[in-house]
Amino acid sequence: xxxxxxxxxxxxxxxxxxxxxxxxxxxxxxxxxxxxxxxxxxxxxxxxxxxxxxxxxxxxxxxxxxxxxxxxxxxxxxxxxxxxxxxxxxxxxxxxxxxxxxxxxxxxxxxxxxxxxxxxxxxxxxxxxxxxxxxxxxxxxxxxxxxxxxxxxxxxxxxxxxxxxxxxxxxxxxxxxxxxxxxxxxxxxxxxxxxxxxxxxxxxxxxxxxxxxxxxxxxxxxxxxxxxxxxxxxxxxxxxxxxxxxxxxxxxxxxxxxxxxxxxxxxxxxxxxxxxxxxxxxxxxxxxxxxxxxxxxxxxxxxxxxxxxxxxxxxxxxxxxxxxxxxxxxxxxxxxxxx
Length: 339
Prior knowledge:
- This protein is α+β, with helices and mostly antiparallel strands.
- It has 2 domains: about 10-215, Beta-Lactamase; about 235-339, Nucleotide cyclase, GGDEF domain (Alpha-Beta Plaits, 2-Layer Sandwich).
- Helix content is about 45%, strand content about 20%.
- It has 10 helices and 10 strands.
- The protein has helices spanning about 10-30, 35-45, 90-95, 100-110, 135-140, 180-215, 215-225, 245-255, 255-275, 300-325, and strands spanning about 55-60, 65-75, 80-85, 115-125, 145-150, 165-170, 235-245, 280-285, 290-295, 335-339.
- The strands form 2 sheets. It has a 6-stranded antiparallel β-sheet with strand order 3-2-1-6-5-4. A 4-stranded antiparallel β-sheet has the order 8-9-7-10, sandwiched between helices.
- A hairpin with a 2-residue loop joins β8 (about 280-285) and β9 (about 290-295).
- The radius of gyration is 25 Å and the shape is elongated.
- The relative contact order is 0.10.
């Protein structure tokens, strides 16, 4: 592999690298949201003459429901399409068939990469075309000609609390593909952009975990600084309490994994109607759960109706779940719900 040629920061390419570095650092200090940050980066690339057609950035996260977040920029829309990746088989399948999984596996096979920025380039058209991943076939059929992917990793390996890194891809539809200056620019600027993205990723991880395990309102208060012992704030709210009847006997007579599966299905069924009605789960307590619907004077009647509607919907949904489980010879749950 040839050594990269040195960059003169007095030349136009070097000046563009400096401008993008300064911009990225400033945005990181301001705490700019990742979607806005990546959109701004793509816009600046295009304004500087970079032949960008499509670009994406994706990062894993720590959240019980979401495996990661993604941002897709398209020239025809001139905008970002944000997305969330739900944990499960489909998320894992897409990841395992991606160029990014290949890059990480290759680095592991080599005992760690001497290059901290893992990258890959694929021509999508012409005699040098190599479409060895499903996403490359899709891009080529849509008109792409050249593809570049890079992973910028965060923190010590295995420390997911810092975020695991950001996976980027950039595609052009220019007939001759990317030029060497184009790739030099990306490799030089993506680490600085990633530090700015990391600022928002860390904030998102913290807020997501606090919301998931403390509840939306309590999580926001803690994240905003309400952490002193003895700190108390009174609120008015509809209380929601649900508890499984006869759970101790069921747990004693049922295999542990079956009990966990039942709890997961019951809690998901009970919480789903809350999310669309501004209900907040405060905690799960073994076989029970506590949630609230915060009351505001101007919307008190509406909030009370929402709580009743959510409870009614949850119990009807639980009846359907129990019928399906009974037909499959699985244990069912009797739940008492009080408002």
